[in-house]
Amino acid sequence: MPEGVALKEDAPAAERQSGASAIAVVGLWREYGERAALRDVSFELRTGKVLAVLGPNGAGKTTLLRILATLLRPTRGDVAVLGCSLPGDAWKLRGRIGFLGHDPLLYRDLTVEENLRFQARLHSLADGIRRTDELLDRVGLSRRRGDLVRDLSAGIVQRVAVCRTVLHEPDLLLLDEPRSNLDPEAAALVEPLIGAASGLTRVLVTHDVDRVLEEADSVLALRGDGSMAYSGRASGLSAGDARALYRGAVR
Amino acid sequence: MTAFRAVLAKDLRVELRTLQSIPAMALFAITTFVLFRYGLDRTTLTGSLAAGVLLATLLFAAILAINRLFAAEREEGGFDAMRLAPIDLTAVFAAKAMGLLVYFVILEGIALPIFGVFFLDDWAGLAPLAGVLVLADAGIALTGALVSALAAHSRARELVVPLVLLPLLVPLMVAAANAAEPLLVAGGPSFEGLGSWLAVLALYDMTFAAVGYAVFDFVLED
Q: Which of A72, A94, A105 sits opposite B77 (nearest CB)?
């Protein structure tokens, strides 16, 4: 049997008072037919803080992120993101979220630049051209701007996807394995956009357990059946605890 | 309007670059004309038979493009990208329908002269026929965009599109055929009764524009 950690209490009230609530989730369920992907999940994230979501494959991490991004409706429970109640106020929230999931959400038959300008137009950015140029420069892709996305390596596609995520200067970042496919140099390039230096409120799904302890203010761990194993401060966890949570080995 | 223009420009740019839909539709239409020409063993068609051959060919060619209308959105995450943007998703419906309309007009620019060469002794009816076809195209484009979006998340979408779309298009095709028939009769076009069939086509177009406007948001939502 793998090592386990006990379910701990939520962050103390003092921490919750430190900033406005960016995300408040109470009793969230999401079901696909008969199967529950998320079971009675509750947590809160304050503005400017970072939440890491841990759990084994199939624990519902991506489902949770998609619900927060307004791409999926909760089956039951209360979800409020940036003061908008979901799913009812989803239309108010769109445009304020940067979502980086498994798919880069880029058209393969458009160039890097065309993709970003298309996104800029969807977000009605007045300075879309300048913003596109600036971001491509920051991630080191100015010279690849005319390349079709279908011709790019996975790492470069991920850098473009990061640009797409932050193009409209969102208030909240929802990131699912944001550094996947990135070599250390590329990861360093995107760090100011989606890392701690961005100063943005972030929800981070990651398999890099050591990084969780460095980067996250709080941790939400999900079990394989979608139930909540832990919700609380990252500082209260040891590296061993975090690894056990990642494997879903929670008693 | 920004989202409408952005989606329409994106779709036309991708089609221009990949040439996935229009050449396939044109090739299908030309091949079908050849089959009709030798299958019917007729060098001249007039009236209802001419209208039927033309409209059936264009309709089935159109289904090729309708089936692929949301392929990029489905396969490359475009649905999510659009739903993450602060846009009225009705603009996506309007842009997709407009894109289809452009494809159909280009198709007919290629197919009508070939139809004329294969089957018509008198080309005088083709100019007014183009007007009838534009109204029919608008109806097929509006209905097609809606059904294609509905089917996009279905595993059997290639079956769902024709099975749902064709029954919905029956009134439109009946009106289009009745409007086209007198324009293709032997001895030159007749315009008698044309106005009422054009009105039916326009009514159909307005109805499906309104239906699409009302429901498209819900179609794209989870």
A: A105
Give percent of chain B above pLDDT 90: 72
Query: What is the tens place of the pLDDT at every residue in A12-34?
Result: 444 344 568 999 999 999 999 88
- Quick check: A59 and A248 in contact, CB under 8 A? yes
**Local structure of A88: helix, strand or coil:** coil
The terminus-to-terminus CA distance of chain A in angstroms comes to 11
Break chain A into its structural domains and give their ranges: 49-67+96-246
Counting one residue from A and one from B, how many pairs have CB atoms under 8 Å apart? Answer: 72
| Residues in contact with B218: Cβ distance below 8 Å, sequence separation at least 6, in sequence order | none
Contact B14 A110 (CB under 8 A): yes
The nearest CA of chain A is from the CA of B94 a distance in Å of 14
Share of chain B above pLDDT 70, in %: 100
Contact B78 A107 (CB under 8 A): yes
In sequence order, the 6+-apart residues with CB closer than 8 A to the CB of A8 are: A230, A232, A236
B77/A106 Cβ within 8 A = yes
**Angle, CA A103 vertex, CA A211 and CA A174 arms, to 5°:** 45
pLDDT at A248: 62
* B87 in reach of chain A (CB within 8 A): yes
The Cα–Cα gap between A28 and B112 comes to 58
How close is the nearest chain B Cα to the Cα of A107, in Å? 6
**Would you call A45 helix, strand, or coil by DSSP?**
strand
Contact at 8 Å (CB) between A123 and A168?
Answer: yes
Residues in chain A with pLDDT < 70?
A: 1-19, 248-251
Residues in chain A closer than 8 A to B5 (CB atoms):
121
Between vectors from CA B32 to CA B30 and to CA B35, what angle results, nearest 5°? 115
Tell me, yes or no, if B121 comes closer than 8 A to chain A by beta carbon.
no
Taking only the tens place, the pLDDT of each residue in B31-62 is 999 999 999 888 898 899 999 999 999 999 99
Q: Report whether pLDDT(B174) > 90.
A: yes
Global pTM reads: 0.88
Which is nearest to A94 in space by CA: B92, B2, B86? B86
ipTM: 0.88
DSSP letter at A85 equals E
> What residues does each domain of chain B span?
2-220
Q: Which one of B18, B77, B82 has the shortest CB-CB distance to A122?
A: B82
Residues A49-67+96-246, CATH architecture: 3-Layer(aba) Sandwich (3.40)
Which among B2, B14, B80 has the least Cβ separation from residue A107? B14
